[in-house]
Amino acid sequence: MPSLVQARGLHMAFGPDGDVLAGLDLEIAEGEFVVLVGPTGCGKTVTLRLLAGFERPTGGDLRYDGQVISGPDPQRGMVFQDIVLFPWMTVLDNVAFGPRVRGTGAQEALRRARESLAAVDLGPFEGRHPFELSGGMQQRVGLARVLVNDPRLILCDEPFGSLDWITREGLQDLLLALWARTGKTVVLATHSIEEAVYLAQRVVLLTPRPAAVQEVIAIDLPGARGAAVRFHPRYAEYVEAIGSAVAGERPTGAAASRG
Fold this sequence. Notes:
The protein is an alpha/beta fold. It folds into two domains: 1-18 and 32-75 and 152-259, 3-Layer(aba) Sandwich (Rossmann fold), CATH 3.40.50; 85-150, no CATH class. The chain has eight helices and ten strands. The chain has helices at 44-52, 91-101, 106-119, 135-147, 165-182, 193-199, 233-246, 253-256; strands at 3-13, 19-29, 33-37, 59-64, 67-68, 76-79, 153-157, 185-190, 202-206, 213-218. Helix 2 crosses helix 3 and helix 3 (106-119) crosses helix 4. The longest helix is centred in the C-terminal third of the chain and has 18 residues, at 165-182. It starts with a strand and ends with a helix.
């Protein structure tokens, strides 16, 4: 598969003593599902913000589809952990807001918003307001706001971190289903090793700040992802090996080499 994202020697610093990334190298193929894992404060969110174009790196080379990332673009959509919705707008209008701002006609924007809400199973709630929705449903609205732009790259910054485990697992399955159906490229950052192993084709393990890539682990689990996978011995092996690597106890090579 051709590369969609290429980062070479990526460096990011905030002030003279604020190094966050130090020589990060990363390549992501079109259609991949990649998960970034690392200790708190290591630079996962900063990496996503650079990919989204919200920040400019202080060094190195960062490209999307061969072009240097110079700013935000609807083709690179980001789902945040804290979803900020317009409280006075309905769910439908919240999702249609982005296309409307970019000049899409009102009827076309609403049509696309309804399609995006249907994709996240929120069609019957289009007339509700954010305060009428649960946290999980609000997160689905956040995902719909990204999908409405039909991006090639979806960036997810701890999108399920504040949710209860039942809601979290349901949204993980929804995201996997959307990825499988659309073929979009997904890069997700998480503190949860279990979540990373469940979702990813590849887990990118980052070092403590300032971050570089410590290791890239290909996840090879049998069959389709689903609840049963969590009870498979190989799933547990990946979780244990990556957890040990994060803790600095041993490399992940043994588990990562299994097929």
